[in-house]
Amino acid sequence: MCYALSLSKKEHQLSDFHTQTDLFVDPPLVYEPTFHNNGFNHENVFIIPQENANKIVPARWGLIPYEELISGDGKPIKFDNLNTRDDKVFTFKSWSDSIFKNRCLILADGFFEPHRRGEQSYPVYCYLEGHKLFAFAGIYTENEDELYTASIITVKGNNQFQEIHNNKLNYKKKLDARMPLVLDDPFHWLRNDLDKNAITELMMFGSIKEDFKAHTVTRELYAQGKSFTYNPKAIEPIIYSDLFGEIEF
């Protein structure tokens, strides 16, 4: 799963994400670098929407089905669905409405996963060599006021993420850990001619070929009432050890 990410680059670095596309942030002056964007706070992530693949727009993290987004019935809107499972995206209506025409890229330069050691949980920061930008596969909704909401596609975790995301619930229920889908060829995800088979193939085989680096970071990220949104301390490595030795990946 992916419930926290970082996007710590400057705005001009976002525009340089894809050299063959003239990307720009719209509206301007809304972007701020973040080091720990906690999905449960439903802050903005920055997405490249299928409908306009040269724009980088803010989207509330937590997909709201289109019908609820435009209903205006006075009921409080719930920001559910931070993540979207690849094996259910075609069958759940709140996701299936978006998977064909409202796919997006969600920009990040790192994300956080919990690792269990004994009775303690440790946050692990995952990133690519050089801390470079990458893109999650995602889906989104948009209303007439250009309010976007978005969700990250997750797939079965590879061996590395099975080791990192080893929570007790997965162990007891013999569940596979999940990981966000980071795309090897991101802009292929935004093509308008993809059918169900092509989308399924991308979710199965489109993951980035480059290995992620990972290190443990401060457990203060779990402290209630503390925010590390704009604090670079959130991604700084911290070494933990116990009777089993240092935690390494």
Helix fraction, binned, reads: 10-25%
Structural class: alpha+beta
Any low-confidence stretches, pLDDT <50, length ≥5? none
Number of strands: 15
Average predicted confidence as pLDDT: 90
Strands, helices and their partners?
Layout: E1 4-7, H1 11-15, E2 24-25, E3 34-38, E4 44-49, E5 55-61, H2 66-71, E6 83-85, H3 93-99, E7 103-108, E8 110-117, E9 120-127, E10 134-142, E11 148-156, H4 159-164, H5 168-173, E12 178-180, H6 196-205, E13 213-216, E14 241-242, E15 245-246
Parallel strand pairs: 2-5, 5-11, 6-11
Antiparallel strand pairs: 1-3, 1-8, 4-5, 4-7, 7-10, 8-9, 9-13, 10-11, 11-12, 14-15
Descriptive account of the structure:
With 249 residues, this protein is of the alpha+beta class. The chain contains 6 helices and 15 strands. The strands form 3 sheets. A 5-stranded antiparallel beta sheet has the order 3-1-8-9-13, with no helix packed on it. A 5-stranded mixed β-barrel has the order 4-5-11-10-7. Strands 14-15 form a two-stranded antiparallel sheet. Strand 14 (241-242) and strand 15 form a beta hairpin. The protein is globular. The model has no long low-confidence stretch (mean pLDDT 90).
